[in-house]
């Protein structure tokens, strides 16, 4: 089968600020939360998600967390609060979202073994720790720990010039990956993944996914619905899916400190499949295999011999 697509990749840098702690001066200093969701870069279903907060007090005489709670993403109230600044010592703060992601470890360590959900629609973020604080505002700056992949399609310039048009309403795509999870320490600055697994998976039913950072080489994409191609006379010549494309070396460029051929942490990759005149559908059929006609008239084969006499009635 011919190589059917060229692929353009656009990369969007993504970051968000989510939570901050601030001081009030009514009686004892209460620790309050505010949720500063970035509704542009975060997943649609993650707006106002609850976030987890851990805190360690330097003056603690036991092996208990000063705070181990969930803050409501809409009201910003901790489920078991309120909490107050200690009158002595300092407090270290750690946080991530969504709060449904759990951590393990013996106090005061934390470790998160994360697996991308089966629909790959969850934005997982971790804030850099804020340590040694005793008052004032504690502003968490959250960073995306996954890579975001969005898939679209377009026509080659030759087809556009020839009058063809493409609509992608309701486009969906399958995305095949080579890693689905790993381990990360939310108590470290600029937390990075360790021991990513080698579990393959295919995410389906959407056109955008948040995945484990990994090599792009060998990952696959296939548009499964939403493709409609029309000719210059506005006749539909093809609708349906496209054949699968396997990402090769050189398709995904380097950006910043992230090397080429990598879906990097915190980066949004726009994968654009360009349909050409030799592109094929999901069943291998040529999208532009238009039915044409030709005609040829054979010579008459004259019957030899004498005329055939027929009586005229």
Report a brief summary of the structure.
This protein has 313 residues and is mainly β. It has one helix at 157-161, and strands at 5-13, 16-23, 30-35, 51-57, 67-71, 83-84, 91-97, 112-115, 125-127, 130-133, 138-144, 147-155, 165-167, 172-177, 181-184, 201-206, 208-211, 214-215, 220-225, 227-230, 236-240, 245-246, 262-263, 267-275. The chain has two domains: 5-11 and 147-275, Immunoglobulin-like (Sandwich), CATH 2.60.40; 15-144.
- Report the major sheet: 9 strands, antiparallel
Please tally the β strands and state the result.
24
In sequence order, what are the helices and strands, one letter per element? EEEEEEEEEEEEHEEEEEEEEEEEE
Segments where pLDDT lies below 50 for 5+ residues? 17-26, 37-45, 291-296
CATH architecture grouping of the largest domain? Sandwich
Number of domains: 2
Radius of gyration, CA atoms, in whole angstroms: 30 Å
Residues in helices, as a percent range: under 10%
| Gap between N and C termini | 66 Å
β-sheet strand percentage:
35-45%
Mean pLDDT: 83
Count of helices? Answer: 1
CATH level 1 class label of the largest domain: Mainly Beta
Structural class: mainly beta
Describe the structure.
Keywords: Signal. This is Fimbrillin family protein. The structure is a single chain. With 313 residues, this protein is an all-beta fold. The chain has two domains: 5-11 and 147-275, Immunoglobulin-like; 15-144. Helix content is 2%, strand content 40%. It is built from one helix and 24 strands. The chain has one helix at 157-161; strands at 5-13, 16-23, 30-35, 51-57, 67-71, 83-84, 91-97, 112-115, 125-127, 130-133, 138-144, 147-155, 165-167, 172-177, 181-184, 201-206, 208-211, 214-215, 220-225, 227-230, 236-240, 245-246, 262-263, 267-275. The strands form six sheets. Strands 2, 3, 4, 5, 6, 7, 9, 10 and 11 form a nine-stranded antiparallel beta sheet that branches. A four-stranded mixed beta sheet has the order 1-24-12-17. It has a four-stranded antiparallel beta sheet with strand order 16-14-19-22, with no helix packed on it. Strand 2 and strand 3 form a beta hairpin. The longest helix is centred in the middle third of the chain and has 5 residues, at 157-161.
């Amino acid at each position: 089968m011919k190589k059917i697509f060229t692929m353009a990749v656009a990369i969007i840098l993504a970051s968000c600020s989510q939570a901050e702690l601030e001081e009030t001066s009514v009686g004892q200093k209460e620790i309050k939360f505010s949720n500063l969701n970035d509704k542009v870069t975060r997943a649609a279903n993650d707006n106002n998600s609850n976030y987890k907060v851990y805190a360690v007090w330097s003056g603690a005489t036991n092996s208990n967390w000063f705070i181990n709670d969930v803050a409501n993403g809409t009201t910003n109230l901790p489920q078991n609060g309120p909490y107050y600044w200690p009158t002595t010592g300092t407090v270290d703060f750690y946080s991530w979202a969504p709060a449904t992601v759990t951590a393990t470890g013996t106090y005061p360590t934390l470790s998160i073994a994360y697996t991308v959900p089966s629909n790959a629609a969850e934005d997982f973020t971790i804030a850099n720790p804020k340590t040694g604080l005793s008052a004032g505002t504690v502003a968490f700056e959250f960073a995306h720990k996954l890579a975001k992949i969005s898939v679209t399609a377009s026509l080659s310039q030759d087809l556009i010039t020839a009058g063809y048009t493409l609509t992608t309403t309701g486009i969906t795509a399958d995305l095949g990956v080579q890693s689905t999870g790993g381990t990360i320490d939310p108590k470290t600055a600029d937390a990075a993944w360790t021991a990513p697994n080698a579990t393959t998976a295919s995410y389906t039913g959407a056109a955008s996914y948040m995945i484990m950072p990994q090599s792009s080489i060998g990952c696959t994409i296939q548009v499964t619905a939403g493709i409609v191609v029309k000719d210059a006379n506005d006749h539909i010549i093809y609708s349906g899916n496209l054949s699968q494309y396997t990402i090769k070396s050189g398709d995904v460029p380097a950006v910043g400190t992230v090397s080429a051929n990598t879906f990097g942490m915190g980066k949004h990759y726009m994968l654009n499949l360009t349909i050409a005149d030799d592109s094929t559908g999901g069943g291998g059929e040529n999208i532009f295999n238009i039915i044409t006609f030709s005609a040829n008239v054979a010579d008459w084969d004259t019957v030899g011999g004498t005329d055939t006499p027929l009586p005229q009635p």
